[in-house]
Amino acid sequence: MTITNVDLSSCDREQVHLVGAIQPHGVLLVLAEPELRIVQASTNSADFLDVPCERLVGQCLDGLLGEENTAAIRTQLVKKELANATHLISVPFLSSQNGVVHISGNRINGLLLLEFELSAGTVEMIPAHAYSSRLQDMIQQLYGSAGLLSFLSVVVEQVRILTGFERVMIYRFDRDGSGMVIAEAKETNLEAYLGLHYPASDIPEPARRLFALSPLRHLPDVDYVPVPLFPDQSPLSDGSPVDLSHSFLRSVSVMYTSYLRNMGVKATLVMPLLKSDKLWGLISCMHHSEPKYLAYEQRFPVELLSRMISLRIGDLENLDHYAYRTQLIQAYCQLIGEMGRAKNYHDVLFGSKINLLNGINADGAALLENGKVTLLGITPTAYQVGLLAEWLAQQKDAVLVTHCLSYNFQAAGEFSAVASGLLAIRISRVNLTWVMWFRPEVLSETHWAGDPKKPVIIDDEDQESRLQPRTSFALWKETVRGYSEPWLDCEIEHVRKMRQSLHDILIEQTCQLIRLNTELELSNQALNNFVYAASHDLKEPLRGIHNYAELLRLEEGEHLSGQGHQRIETILCLTERMHHFLEALLEYSHLDYIEQDFQIYSITLLVEEIVDMLKKTNPNESITVDIQPAMPDILCNSTFVKVIFQNLIMNAIKYNAEAVKTIKIGCYTTNGMPVFFVQDNGIGISSEFHEYIFQPFKRLHGHKEYGGGSGVGLALTQKAITQHGGRIWIESGEGKGSTFCFTLTPEHVEEGGE
Ligand code: ADP
Prior knowledge:
The protein has 754 residues and is α+β, with helices and mostly antiparallel strands. It has five domains: 203 residues, GAF domain (Beta-Lactamase, 2-Layer Sandwich), CATH 3.30.450.40; 102 residues, PAS domain (Beta-Lactamase, 2-Layer Sandwich), CATH 3.30.450; 78 residues, 2-Layer Sandwich (Beta-Lactamase); 80 residues, Helix Hairpins (Orthogonal Bundle); 155 residues, 2-Layer Sandwich (Heat Shock Protein 90). It is elongated, with a radius of gyration of 43 Å. Adenosine-5'-diphosphate binds next to helix 17 and helix 18.
């Protein structure tokens, strides 16, 4: 360990539960079941049990306790699982001390661990009736307190009376593992710890784990000499030391005792406070003047009390935020109700009356959907929200909660004034949809117990570096930056509910879209059938009109006036146009009847074939066509592909006033997908018409200009491309030539989703 990498969290690496030693206020025996043979014993056994450990090992329990007591223990062993240390029996013990011995046990790794603690006459006992009236008083007082903090301040007072410890405090953990003293009762001459913050490293992870495991930890004398187990070889076949995680007598970390000594503490008693089975805080009792041992009978009611307090914490916390919770529930119901009625949930989330910020204590909100950012209230910029979303996309959790964003995502330091607090929910992985709530930075003065940045000092005496927790517990003030008010459980619950509802709405909308699409496809098909039949049937009478007009001109021409002749010419002209129009319509709807025959074709070969044909049909034009030689082979319908290239190349020739018409045909790749293009040096198309010209029968010129046309060519092209799942777009401007680009495969959609 070097000076730079060491801190109190080095305890995290210390295997405190495998120390192989106990504290001296009891005896530990390790036994093999079912015969209850002693395989290891603490070396202080002679002091308590009058039998030296060397004689105990190898003996069976009845040799020590007698048959009757052993039988009573066996009965308990059958009944109980003993995953945690559990009291088994208390027996009068035939020893020189003539007291009662309390025996508790726990099972671990196939071994039975029995702990013996004497309740000798040496301990001053309060009579049972006095104890029970004290407990009754306490329970009455506890029920009288309104709100969590006043409840806890009664708790510390009562625990102090009950145990006689000089200081009792309640320490509450924050989400990041650091903590704060939120209630304290102490002797008046002692310095107050109330309101002090402790860095996460002060109670390292293994210590937190062990605290959560046992209902009570007692260290009667900080200066105790650890008692080893005999023999020191492990009784386990793999040679690993016996795990003392659940043992009440377990020896504690050297770091912990040094830390307590530095604080001027001589004895401790610590009980975990659990909320929904998670470590919420600790009741920590300290004695400063001398060691203090609390016998089993005195500890038992305190343990019960701490369990009872754990049960009340959740309720009281909820009670503290009762009004706010109700407000959040109302806001949620309103939003969900509106969303159910509205066509678009987006409008509701950002509405002027009801919106994402309703009810919740946040200054800004944002929605990110398909890369588009919508903001509400005081937020980072859309660009910054985009950056945030990139970071969010790397997180595996669908709900992200932080009240110090810039400590998790450094770039957020730029906007920590408006968004130090972030609540983010992922609605969809496919469209990368996130909803976020922001809270501004709150500059607060934190009172640390000692310098949080120097949790440990290195003792360099004797040229040997030894780790020592800091000796100074002076109040250390620090202005904390980059923190917002922490998010409450009820707020997290609120956004989780929002996430579920938005998710459901999204699924509902997608299903509706699929249904509408299917209906649309069916009605399109019906319309197409009609168009096909109608244009086919109209051709016949149209031919009749044309023929009769022709006959009229031939047979009756000499009787007609000049104006009469002109009218007949117009009829013939119009019927001809009508004929082309019907042909185009037929061609357009005919595309739906072409067999869906998809095979791998060489696009280069197909294009060469079409260009040859077009050059033959336009012999008088001066045309240069540059075909990229190695365009990829594609799974496609050759009839459709011919329709596409034929129309695009024909247009490239038609809408071109240059002396030499230059056409370039090729393919490039984007995101692994081939994109084909037909480029010309023609008249170009102004951007406002880029979508318009794909509609059937839409032209940008008079019907005789640029060789005329029905205006259906590009509509046909688009339809043929859509049949492949691809799309078409234009890159062009007036007088700048045109490039028509298209794909023949569906665009890649990312797999996944909630
Ligand atoms: P048509 O050629 O029968 O008019 P299209 O659907 O093929 O029908 O084209 C629609 C319109 O788009 C054309 O009338 C023309 O104005 C414009 N257009 C199509 N291709 C080009 C091109 N390569 N350059 C300029 N304008 C074009």
